[in-house]
Amino acid sequence: MTGLEDKYIIKNNKRLRYGYTTGSCAAGATRGAARMLLSGEALSEVELQTPKGITLNLQLHDITKGENYVSCAVQKDAGDDPDTTNGILVYAKVEKISAEVAKNIIDNQNTDSKKVIIHSSIILDGGVGVGRVTKPGLSQKVGEAAINPVPKAMILREAEEAAQEYDYEGYLKITISVPEGEEISKKTFNPRLGIMGGISILGTSGIVEPMSERALIASIQVEMKQHFCQGENYILVTPGNYGADYLREHMTIPFENNIKCSNYVGETIDMAIDMGVKGILFVAHIGKFVKVAAGIMNTHSHCADGRMEVLCASAIRAGGTLECAREILEAGTTDEALAVIDRYGILEETMAIVMEKIQFYLDHRSYEQILLGAVVFSNVYGLLGQTRDARKLMGAIQEQADAKTDKL
């Protein structure tokens, strides 16, 4: 019993089970290993509180105990979500180390290739099968293990709580490993992002909510219809969490009115036209929406990429040199490419060309039947640009929100 038995969604008349992330596996294994190490007790399972508020009961596998360490694993269960990591074992080894050993680990880091995560008296690192970051622009520093921020916080929390509960005041070293991770990573986007040697430890809620492609598109349609039926003729759309966060933190139009379209830009436009919507404003991260500037209407990396090619072509049109083009094509992330373009002094001109192409392909998809526009940003550079009709759409969205407020 994992605690997810009654957690599911209904899509296309099918019941799809929830699962849990590699981040939850790593945190659960850390909890088990730390508590067995510091208490001396034997455990076969642990309870883990996830950021989503769901408590998981996780079985511990392959428990190994030494004089100053305990290692164990939790098996990933992705529920009914298609996931290359489903069924893998995620290990956590928790060790007691002396202050001298801790100092040596910290002092002997190679900042170019390997860097540990240090939090108070806890050292966290990735082992076999956990990728290591080799390029800037991600949430981890170059040299760190690819353990995303939320899983990292969960892992550190479990170690800290165990140390407090059992009055341990010394140093702990945690190593997260995934024996199958290096092979699995070849099927992911990690190598293109400069994450080498394994998978990333992921998850923002600790829980995997199953979403087949057909089901996800249907859910977008349902949400859009709700907004349209409430009198919203102009729809505010964010592809994902980055767009929603930017909208909330940096724009004045009503955040609560946005819907998420995931990667399905084209399908979202098609549904809006069919429904009678008058316009859509997309608020999107450059990493996704630069693809639209090449006419790519499904922005999932499995469908198409072309990010660097679009930025390269736009930079050349903006006056960039051949060397600038080469550097852009070698970049692993859009923020890294933007840094190149900025260094050559043509960022504003390049983004203006990208916005022009985004507007062209949005209009091409819709045959100009509705008003379409986009606001595009980067987490590093902030607002990068907005398309021709974006400001008109912002005004229309604000007006309909004000009209709705006046009726209340």
Could you give a short description of this structure?
With 408 residues, this protein is of the alpha/beta class. It has 14 helices and 21 strands. Helix 10 runs parallel beside helix 12.
Amount of helix: 25-40%
- Structural class from helices and strands? alpha/beta
Proportion of beta-strand residues:
15-25%
Poorly predicted tracts of residues: none
Number of helices, counting only DSSP H or I runs of 4 residues or more? 14
Largest sheet: 6 strands, mixed
- Overall mean pLDDT: 91
Gyration radius (Cα, Å) is 24 Å
* Shape estimate: globular
Task: Give a structural overview.
By secondary structure, the protein is an alpha/beta fold. The protein has 14 helices and 21 strands. Helix 1 runs parallel beside helix 3, helix 10 packs antiparallel against helix 11 and helix 10 packs across helix 13. The longest helix is centred in the C-terminal third of the chain and has 20 residues. It starts with 7 loop residues before the first strand and ends with a helix.
